[in-house]
Design a protein that fits this description.
alpha/beta, 16% strand
């Protein structure tokens, strides 16, 4: 994992004090999709995204950030690029596994939309929720809309009791110490105004799984508005979960660091 914290130039964007700015007449949505060994999942999630955006008449692109997958994920991405066109599918690979936070930094450099959606490629996040997220953002002009498992109408499917307790415990710990006014700090299905995402990425220090939690905490620090849409999180269809003991330890350390510094 890289120790270097990449800084993005935001000078060309409007200052992220956008809460009173009306939505733009035409919006484009860039999906940042970090991948590692997602050969089997990538065609499915891409088809669902393309279907959702096309049916809703939404301008879109997918930026695939692959960290040198040995299973041929990049070959699949190139095939998908031929099917959907280079205007809809970008492949922006990296040399190896450098962390989730830096994957978003890398992908954001190539995103051409004025809104950015971050989500997992393992089919845990269903694209069917994206129109609801876009609608809520447009109605309230939110800076961020987050998919949450922990509001009425949301939930998880395919987790055992241990993993449910770990997730609930992680959210409870962060909420107790940091009070971010968000129900799902560890979720990774979010819609951002692009300039807001730039600002938050530049302010966020974490690179791994702590990244998602710190982004929401920083959003509160900068007084960004956050809306929430209930979602059902489904455990990955193919492949193995990348969450382990080290990620849980990093999360706890990250919560404590933020509590001591913010």
């Amino acid at each position: 994992m890289s120790n270097e914290h990449a800084i993005l130039n935001v000078d060309e964007f409007t200052s992220p004090t956008t809460s009173n700015t009306p939505p733009m007449a035409h919006n484009k949505y860039s999906v940042l999709l970090p991948t590692y060994n997602e050969r089997e999942n990538l065609p499915i999630i891409t088809w669902l995204l393309a279907k959702t955006f096309t049916e809703e008449r939404i301008d879109w692109e997918i930026v695939i950030i692959d960290d040198g997958s040995p299973d041929g994920t990049q070959d699949v991405a190139l095939q998908l690029q031929k099917v959907y066109g280079e205007d809809h599918i970008q492949l922006r690979p990296r040399a190896g596994k450098l962390g989730l936070g830096t994957a978003y930094v890398h992908g954001l450099q190539f995103a051409t939309g004025n809104f950015v959606i971050i989500m997992d490629a393992d089919f845990s996040h269903h694209p069917k929720y994206i129109p609801q997220m876009i609608k809520l953002q447009a109605e309230q002009n939110y800076d961020i809309v987050s998919g949450t498992r922990y509001l009425p109408g949301g939930g998880v499917f395919g987790w055992d009791l241990k993993r449910k307790l770990v997730s609930r415990g992680a959210n409870y710990l962060a909420t107790l110490l940091l009070r971010p006014k968000s129900s799902d700090l560890t979720g990774s299905f979010r819609l951002y105004k692009k300039e807001v995402l730039y600002q938050l990425i530049n302010a966020t220090l974490a690179k791994g799984y702590v990244f998602q939690m710190e982004m929401i905490v920083r959003a509160r620090q900068f007084n960004h508005s956050v809306g929430e849409v209930p979602i059902t999180f489904v455990d990955r269809v193919y492949g193995e979960s990348k969450m382990g003991v080290s990620e849980i330890t990093q999360y706890a350390q990250g919560v404590w660091r933020l509590f001591m510094t913010i």
